[in-house]
Amino acid sequence: MATSLLWFDAFIRILRLSLFVAVAVLAVVCLVDWLVRTRRINPFNPIARGMRSTVDPLMAPVERRIVRAGGLPTSAPWWTLVFAVVGAIVLVTLLDFIRSQMVMIAASSGEGAGSIAALLVRWTFSILRLALIVRVISSWIRVSPYSPWIRWAFRLTEWFMAPLRQVVPTIGVIDITPIVAYFLLGLLQGIFFAVLRIG
Predict the structure, then answer these.
(1) Domain edges within the chain
(2) Which of 15, 85, 92, 108 gives 119 a disulfide partner, CB atoms 3.0 to 4.6 angstroms apart?
(3) Residue 199: enclosing H or E segment and its boundaries?
(4) What is the pLDDT of residues 26-67, one digit of tens each?
């Protein structure tokens, strides 16, 4: 397991460096594309023609979404850069999370059944918290709860969110039920850990 972790750490380091370089190059490309779109570079310039023929088709899906949302097509390069940066951060965070889980599995496997049960409880509550966060973010950006990307979060959390919604009052137009649910999950996790330690 230690050898696997060393290889995984080396992979994460190389990936971080590669993503940093890719995002830096993309930032330069987005800057040039923005200069072309805003006519700060002559549209008949070879650079401008090259950007329109190679880069603009790649940014077309982002541009369509921006225009549908009421934005300007000239902001497509910056939104593309934002999506790339967020995607890189999510990927690195996911790999760090996987690494930490590998460490916990290695530690738990040597400590017996109680430790493995505690790890399973921790995973269960982490998935429920993640589902809550996905629900909240999807409500901010107005993604349908029936979307295949979001539906899983509603299925995992609705069983305890529905009864809570009947008890927890709203503050104006703000529904604080997800916040209450998040803290209740932490409390339940603590109770489970206490029971596991007693048992």
Answers:
(1) 1-110, 112-199
(2) 108
(3) none
(4) 999 999 999 988 888 888 888 888 888 888 888 888 888 888
User: CA triplet 28, 31, 55: central angle to 5 degrees?
Assistant: 80
Note the Cα 70 to chain centre separation in Å. 24
What's the whole-number mean pLDDT along residues 63-82? 87
| C-alpha pair distances (Å), 169 with each of 1, 4, 23, 103, 180 | 49, 49, 44, 41, 11
How far is it, in rounded angstroms, from Cα 102 to Cα 2? 10
Q: How far is CA 86 from CA 19, 23, 72, in A?
A: 11, 10, 21
Query: Diameter of the chain by CA atoms?
Result: 76
In whole angstroms, give the CA distance from residue 2 to residue 85. 31
Per the document, the length of the chain is 199
pLDDT given at position 107: 76
Residue 54, token pair as written in the block? 């190679």
| 112 φ/ψ sector (left φ>0, alpha ψ -120 to 50, else beta) | left
Global model pTM greater than 0.90 = no
Residue 153: enclosing H or E segment and its boundaries? Answer: helix 151-167
